[in-house]
Design goal:
globular, alpha+beta, Glutathione S-transferase Yfyf (Class Pi), Chain A, domain 2, binds glutathione, 4-stranded mixed β-sheet, Glutaredoxin
């Protein structure tokens, strides 16, 4: 059985669950010993990263490294294209999510609690997110060959979009979704693995916002 350290509301754990659902794999989630961000967990996973795959004698602590590993280990329902160039484009999409768009959304997490909000930072982040969405719209227009498939590069976006949607009214973000991104979102939200994960994830996130915002 596939096992990984996770907390239910973690964005990257939800990204991993989408992959697992898409590949029809069974898994078990293990809470990080000592809790999220604890020193105890860091003695097991040095970076403190969630998710972390617990595999025989090694740990893999990065959602994308885990995704690539599982996609190779369980080749049915492949999530990378056969074509070399398209594989690279799919990986480019993953990296853009993990290193460009999501970190700009994550930078707002400390501002969810009203007492910790900084209007200046929120406004700056709002602009940065709008810029990243525009960049992603251009990327989508330049990678239409990937439109008919759902792959590794697509697993993070549905979760980040749900966060962005939840943060927008709470923090008063001024973010316009480009048409290409809106259409992309509509398409991937219809994929059964995404639908199934978001059905569970959305209520968790709503609860999190009710308790913290
Ligand atoms: N690039 C990493 C990012 C993962 C990430 O930021 N996870 C959050 C939870 S959603 C986390 O572990 N935060 C605690 C920490 O970084 O110490 C990945 O893809 O796994």
């Amino acid at each position: 059985m596939i096992r990984f350290y996770a907390i239910p509301v973690s964005l990257y754990c939800a990204k991993l669950r989408i992959l697992l659902r898409h590949k029809h794999l069974q898994w078990q989630e293990v809470p990080p010993p000592g809790g999220y961000g604890s020193m105890e967990y860091r003695t097991i996973v040095a970076s403190g990263n969630l998710p972390a795959l617990i595999e025989d004698n090694i740990l893999i602590a990065d959602s994308e490294a885990i995704a690539e590993y599982l996609n190779e280990k369980y080749p049915s329902d492949p999530m990378l294209p056969d074509d070399l160039m398209l594989r690279a484009k799919m990986r480019e999409r993953s990296r853009f999510h993990d290193t460009r768009l999501e970190p700009e959304v994550r930078a707002l997490f400390p501002h969810i609690r009203p007492a910790q909000r900084d209007k200046e930072i929120i406004s700056q982040q709002s602009e940065k997110i709008a810029m990243r969405l525009k960049q992603f719209a251009t990327m989508l227009s330049n990678s239409k060959e990937l439109d008919g498939q759902f792959g590794l590069g697509d697993c993070g976006f549905p979760v980040t979009f749900v966060w962005l949607e939840a943060l927008t009214p709470v923090l008063g973000l001024d973010v316009i979704w480009p048409r290409e991104v809106h259409e992309y979102r509509e398409r991937i939200n219809q994929v059964p693995s995404v639908k199934a994960e978001l059905e569970i994830y959305r209520p968790l996130l709503n609860k999190y916002f009710k308790q913290n915002a």
